[in-house]
Amino acid sequence: MTASSLTERLEHGNLSDPFYIEYVSRTQPFTMEAHHFHSYFELYCLLSGTRDYFVRDSTYGVEAGDLVFIGPNVLHQTLLAGDPAHARIVVHIDDRYVRNVLGEHAELLLGPFVAAAPIVRLKGEQRLRLDALTDRILEELRMRPPGFELALRSAFAELLLLSARAVQAGHAPEASLSSPMHRKMSEIVRYLNASYGEPIKVGELAERFYISPYHMSRSFKAATGFTVIDYLNLTRVKEAQRLLRATRLPITEIAARTGFDNFSHFGKTFKKITRASARDYRKEHSAASPQ
């Protein structure tokens, strides 16, 4: 991202806070960081323009007014779709916010994050309410009057409730992009999600899905924003993180279970993606776990 690509950026808080909100307007092409999954909940609201958004195993066309709900540790990536100019609001909340603020209403309000499809597209009166809420958020971020922090949290809670009610009412989710190419790439992603613990080579993967390695590599990158190898490594490391947190398995066994046939390769890949060694990651998260 270059400074010249931004026309406006507003934020409250930082990524280590329980609640973080950011507004960005861009005029130039932008691609997210390649290694993109995280431990917090993310709400992405597109205010203008269009984007493609890869979430979990499918790519969705996102237009102004759409809400994208990303749960913890879900791989995702925004992609260019036509004109690069767009504006969006992103909100991050972590377990502390869920526990201390959402409290007894967490199950209802987090419903959109676990729905079958990650996209909510509101219509009619609900869309007008969404527009009023996002206008309020932008005004509070720009003007920062006394108590603006409370106003931002209040507007976010209303946005969650609006979306949760739409999902509970049986709001039909928007379908993912359904070209033959996107369907084929979704099949490949689902296979990788299920088989990451096995040895996987690009040539053999392409042969399994009756496609040339060159065409598969280009199409996979276009549909997901990831290379095949990057996606496979991210999926393996994400599972290794889970095993490091949840079990006392030896790190060598975790490396083998997650598909790494070389322990040195596991160590380098894990550190590149997480910026910590597997041993340090386990130590940090063991210390953070309640006794």
Automatic annotation (TrEMBL):
Residues 186-284 form the HTH araC/xylS-type domain. The keyword DNA-binding applies. The keyword Transcription regulation applies. InterPro entries: AraC-bd (IPR003313), Homeodomain-like_sf (IPR009057), HTH-like (IPR037923), HTH_AraC (IPR018060), HTH_AraC-typ_CS (IPR018062), RmlC-like_jellyroll (IPR014710). Keywords: DNA-binding, Transcription, Transcription regulation. One of its GO terms (molecular function) is DNA-binding transcription factor activity. Pfam families: AraC_binding, HTH_18. This is AraC-like protein. It comes from Cohnella phaseoli.
